[in-house]
Amino acid sequence: MKMNAEIIAVGSELLLGQITNTNARYISSQLAELGINVYYHTVVGDNAERLNQAIKLAESRAELIVFSGGLGPTKDDLTKETIAKHLGKDLVMDNTALVSIEAFFQRVNRTMTENNKKQALVLDGCQVLPNNHGMAPGMFYSHGKHVYILLPGPPKEMEPMFQIEAKPVLAKWLNQEEIILSHVLRFYGIGEAELETQIMDLLEAQTNPTIAPLASDGEVTLRITAKTSTEAEALRLIQETEQILLSRVGNHLYGYNDDSLASSATKRLIELGLTISAAESLTAGLFQSELAAIPGVSETLVGGMVTYTADSKVNQLGIERSLIDQFGVVSAECATAMAKRVKMMFESDIGVGLTGAAGPSSHDNQAAGTVWIAIVLPNDEVYTHLLHLSDMRNTNRLRAVKKTLHYLIQLLSQKSVKI
Amino acid sequence: MKMNAEIIAVGSELLLGQITNTNARYISSQLAELGINVYYHTVVGDNAERLNQAIKLAESRAELIVFSGGLGPTKDDLTKETIAKHLGKDLVMDNTALVSIEAFFQRVNRTMTENNKKQALVLDGCQVLPNNHGMAPGMFYSHGKHVYILLPGPPKEMEPMFQIEAKPVLAKWLNQEEIILSHVLRFYGIGEAELETQIMDLLEAQTNPTIAPLASDGEVTLRITAKTSTEAEALRLIQETEQILLSRVGNHLYGYNDDSLASSATKRLIELGLTISAAESLTAGLFQSELAAIPGVSETLVGGMVTYTADSKVNQLGIERSLIDQFGVVSAECATAMAKRVKMMFESDIGVGLTGAAGPSSHDNQAAGTVWIAIVLPNDEVYTHLLHLSDMRNTNRLRAVKKTLHYLIQLLSQKSVKI
Question: Which of A219, A276, B44, B153 has the greatest number of CB atoms lying within 10 Å of its CB?
Answer without folding.
Answer: B44
